[in-house]
Write a structure and sequence with these properties.
By secondary structure, the chain is of the alpha/beta class. It folds into two domains: 2-164, Rossmann fold, CATH 3.40.50; 171-278, Orthogonal Bundle (N-(1-d-carboxylethyl)-l-norvaline Dehydrogenase, domain 2). Helices cover 51% and strands 13% of the residues. The structure holds NADP nicotinamide-adenine-dinucleotide phosphate.
């Protein structure tokens, strides 16, 4: 199929490579032109403006967006809406919030432009392994895109989830689960490191062992094997853990739907905690213990 790709970051660039490999014709645009030059050298058609990208597609045009979620995507869609025609298709493949998808698809429907929300998982390994893809929107539009999705995903690796927003809803929950799993691995290894046996332990070997038929084997644990291989005690990095939105949205969703999700919620808060090693809340606790019980506090060196 012929399609346009907007955004050649860690995700978009490799997705284009996977599509080209399967003989799709991809017109690629990126804010920074160097990346367009690079992918053009690998077989894509380059576009140096969004107008050029649209002009190089044929109706019904398919434009896949891989940009940071939020205002950047909204701005891009507004610009596209001025250039596309009725029947054309926008696929938002970043980590948009599902409520944004519902709004956008309704706005675009006024112009008869179709909108699919595609939650894409696979990270930098997607080029090799394929991108697990969760799609929401009109089923007939999803069906039209099947050849593209077959190329992007591994076998059985894409799913029509339902109406607009459902693809990113499933992706949001996927990422919430990811937060909880990562937290559990982190805590488990911290307990090993705090044990009397710690000098006997080789964490790469333990991660590797657990990946051999154990109940907790996983791709995350395989990645941890790699990380411990490079840096056996992870001394080269600081334990500062960022988040990019989906965990927060999952927790907000849990509150809204009154579903208890303590593991995911706590793993989100643990990330917040990781960014503050002398938090105000902990200083309040220490001060209170001193006030009511005369317990010793450690003075700060200011
Ligand atoms: N990385 C992952 O593991 C992963 C996994 C699943 C989903 N996602 C989602 O996929 C989307 C893309 O992620 P990524 O990892 O590819 O991001 P990335 O590597 O940071 O690349 C971001 C892309 O967006 C462009 N961009 C950034 N700000 C822009 C702006 N203000 N105007 C126009 N273009 C702008 C960048 O262009 P320049 O080259 O000019 O900077 C680049 O092409 C995000 O929604 C992300 O949450 C990422």
């Amino acid at each position: 199929m012929r399609l346009g790709m907007i955004g050649l970051g860690r995700m978009g660039m490799n997705m284009v490579r996977r599509l080209i490999r399967d003989k799709h014709e991809v017109v690629a645009y990126n804010r920074t032109p160097d990346k367009v030059d690079k992918i053009t050298g690998e077989g894509a058609e380059g576009a140096y403006t969004v107008e050029e990208l649209v002009s190089k597609l044929f109706a019904p045009r398919i434009v896949w967006i891989m940009l940071p979620a939020g205002k950047i995507v909204d701005k891009q869609i507004s610009a596209l809406a001025e250039l596309l025609e009725p029947g054309d298709i926008i696929v938002e493949g970043g980590n948009s919030r599902y409520t944004d998808d519902i709004r956008r698809s309704a706005e675009l429907e006024n112009k008869s432009i179709h909108y699919l929300d595609a939650g894409v998982s696979g990270g930098i390994w997607g080029l090799e392994v394929g991108y697990c893809t969760m799609i929401g929107g009109e089923k007939k539009v999803f069906d039209m895109l099947t050849p593209v999705l077959e190329s992007l995903a591994p076998q059985d690796g894409f799913l029509y989830c339902g109406p607009s927003g459902s693809g990113h809803f499933v992706k949001m929950i996927h990422n919430g689960i990811e937060y909880g799993m990562m937290q559990a691995y982190g805590e488990g290894f911290a307990l090993l490191e705090a044990s009397p046996y710690k000098d006997n332990f080789d964490y790469r070997k333990i991660a590797h062992l657990w990946n051999q038929g154990s109940v907790i084997r996983s791709w995350l644990l395989e990645l941890l094997e790699d990380a411990f291989k490079e840096d056996p005690k992870l001394n080269d990095i600081i334990g500062y853990v960022d988040d990019s939105g989906e965990g927060r949205w999952t927790v907000e969703q849990a509150i809204e739907s009154r579903v208890a999700a303590p593991v995911i919620a706590n793993s989100l808060f643990a990330r917040f905690q990781s960014r503050d090693d002398n938090s105000f809340s902990d200083r309040v606790l220490a001060a209170l213990r001193r006030e009511f019980g005369g317990h010793a506090v450690k003075a700060s060196d200011k």
